[in-house]
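Format notes (please read before filing issues)

Several people have asked whether sequences and structure tokens are stored in separate files. They are not. Every record keeps both together, in the order shown below: the sequence lines, then the token lines. Line labels are part of the format and must not be stripped during preprocessing.
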Amino acid sequence: ELIKLSSEVYKHLGGGTYDEKDYQKALGHEFSQKNIEYLREIHIELFYKKIPLKLGAPDFYFNKIKPPAILEVKLGSGLEEINRQQLKMYLLSISKSTNPILRNVREGYLLNFLKVEPSTEIHHEKKNKKEYYKIEVEHYRLNDNKKFKLLNKPYKVGPFNITDQQSEISQTKL
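Then the structure lines:
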């Protein structure tokens, strides 16, 4: 369902001039249309060991789905390690929470919307071919040993292959 709703958002917003918050709002609208209950940017304490440092805010929290989960929405050329570390930090901190509602969250999703349509991007590296995806989703679980594990093969809508020849064409159109 997440892929279907994300695809609907991307179909209307594309990878153009909107920012991450716009995609979050549009996705929230799609969740509401499908009667999927969620909370947006619920504040959680982020910990160093057992010491709370500051507040963090995952983009979406779903407590009515089984198992409960969080969703972090990104807007860029693809998911990166820093995005995975952010999700891991949220899940580790939630596991230390004294809030009985949050304490059961062990799963999280990363969702990336492609920021720029590949046909408009210019590459300068020779013989480099890179795949871009309109939408990428990764699903993780924090197990009882606090190990962060990818649950399924990442789901990707696309790909677009950008080659030097396409880059040269893009450059001449500018």
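For reference, the curators noted about this record: The longest helix spans residues 81-95. The chain is about 30% helix and 30% strand.
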